[in-house]
Design goal:
The protein is α/β, with parallel strands linked by helices and 416 residues long. The chain is built from 7 helices and 27 strands. Strand 19 and strand 20 (303-308) form a beta hairpin. The longest helix is centred in the C-terminal third of the chain and has 19 residues, at 312-330. Bound molecules: adenosine monophosphate and magnesium ion.
């Protein structure tokens, strides 16, 4: 076997030449899945004021140090503090304020006694009579029932670091700090090209020798999944004019990346190769990867270009392994891969290339067990449909005995 390019080296070579896109302001409701383009600093404390964690009575804790069933302590209720109000006065020793969850602590109080620990029974909204006594039969610790200023975030704290992907928690946090928009990295625009005389658009009938173009759809969806904005070109026919026309059309849209599938294996490469060499400089690599050995990478008029293998599984796996890190770099996020480990549930053989086997995962005690999803043919997309994960068999491990522990890359949350 002539020498094959190591997968990690290929990724390194690709990433070297790629630059992260610039920032843009986006509304918070658009931020899910987007990448923070800058650190986000809290402009205020959260919570902005000390407040009660429960419905009860704000007190001076030391008033209660001797409290017990045998020594009930009576405090005079001097005010009522509903949520959203600001207390008008301070608490003195011997006094209490009725306080609602989230309402500001009055000056002088340093603990909140839950209403359940007092003689008073109230329904939300019931009035309380100022001047009445509240009886407490238990001591309370300083700080109990109080949420402190800046407990969640302090003004000046970095709450989200550049490169973080916004999820619901980050979006809620940013909203809590009163910010209605954020700076996110612009989404990479990616154009997808399929080629081949055998490919038929989905709305046309299938005639002998033809198949439907599935790669355009799986690749578009992968682009979306990893934060890009895909555009799909019409299928290129196996003629120089058609291939050239589709690539020219793709470049006219000024995308951040072009991905084609098919036409990079020996024998089919010449047509596409000819057009690529007119439009830029592209290297044809043979990667130590299964499925997905042939791969083209280069630049067409400055636009990064990936030529993926045509077989539907190979196209998807090379995307996951090689294109994804590149797309993430353009969008400014670090590799968010979700890897775990699993033991092989059966014997697996490979040809010695690093192999990404499509597997289902089942739980056995405290480990995942991986079983192949039927045929591993690089043309059989059902092997991906059924897969929970890709099991990564390292280079040169030609036989994986049952029970061998290997890394897996999750494709979805496995069913327990
Ligand atoms: P090629 O690299 O052109 O020889 O294609 C390799 C294999 O992938 C052939 O079986 C093609 O029919 C298949 N193929 C290529 N492009 C697509 C596509 N867009 N959708 C489904 N299968 C494809
Ligand atoms: Mg072809």
């Amino acid at each position: 076997m002539t020498s094959l390019l190591n997968v990690d080296r290929a990724i390194e070579l690709i990433l070297m030449g790629l630059e992260t896109k610039g920032p843009e302001h986006i509304g918070l409701t658009e931020a899910l899945g987007r990448v923070a383009a800058t650190d986000i600093i809290a402009p205020i404390n959260l919570p902005p004021f000390a407040n009660s964690a429960l419905d009860g009575f704000a007190v001076v804790a030391s008033d209660m140090s001797e409290a017990s069933e045998d020594n009930p302590i009576g405090l005079t209720i001097v005010m009522d503090i509903p949520a959203g109000s600001a207390p008008e006065q301070a608490i003195q020793r011997g006094e209490a304020a009725r306080i609602m969850t989230g309402a500001p602590m009055p000056e002088g109080a340093n603990a909140v006694v839950p209403v359940e620990d007092t003689n008073i029974d109230w329904e939300a909204g019931d009035p309380v009579t100022v001047g009445d006594k509240v009886i407490i039969t238990r001591p309370v610790k300083i700080g109990a029932g109080v949420r402190h200023v800046g407990e969640s975030a302090k003004a000046g704290d970095t709450i989200i670091t550049k490169g973080t992907i916004f999820r619901s928690a980050e979006i809620g946090m940013v909203a809590g700090l009163g910010m209605s928009d954020v700076l996110a990295t612009q989404q990479p625009r990616v154009t997808i090209i399929s080629s081949g005389d055998e490919l038929v658009p989905l709305h046309e009938p299938l005639t002998p020798g033809k198949i439907y173009d599935s790669n355009s759809y799986s690749l578009m969806t992968l682009v979306k999944e990893y934060g890009g904005i895909p555009t799909r070109m019409p299928v290129a026919r196996d003629t120089l004019e058609s291939v050239r026309g589709v690539f020219e059309g793709a470049l006219a849209g000024r995308p951040d990346m072009i991905i084609s599938s098919a036409g990079v294996s020996v024998g089919t490469a010449d047509l596409v190769r000819g057009v690529l060499s007119e439009l830029g400089s592209v290297d044809f690599w043979r990667i130590n990867l299964r499925p997905g050995k042939p791969l083209a990478f280069g630049h067409l008029r400055g636009v990064p270009f990936f030529g993926l293998p045509g077989n539907p599984v190979s196209a998807m796996v090379t995307f996951e392994v090689i294109v994804r890190p590149a797309l993430l770099k353009l969008s400014g996020s670090s590799d968010q891969d979700y890897y775990t480990t699993a033991v092989a549930g059966e014997r697996i053989t490979t040809d010695g290339r690093r192999s990404y086997e499509r597997v289902t995962l089942t739980r056995d005690g405290n480990q995942w067990v991986a079983h192949l999803t039927g045929t591993q043919s690089s043309g059989a997309l059902m092997s991906m449909v059924l897969a929970d994960a890709l099991m990564i068999v390292p280079e040169d491990m030609k036989v994986v005995e049952p029970g061998t522990m290997l890394p897996v890359k999750l494709l979805r949350q496995p069913r327990l």
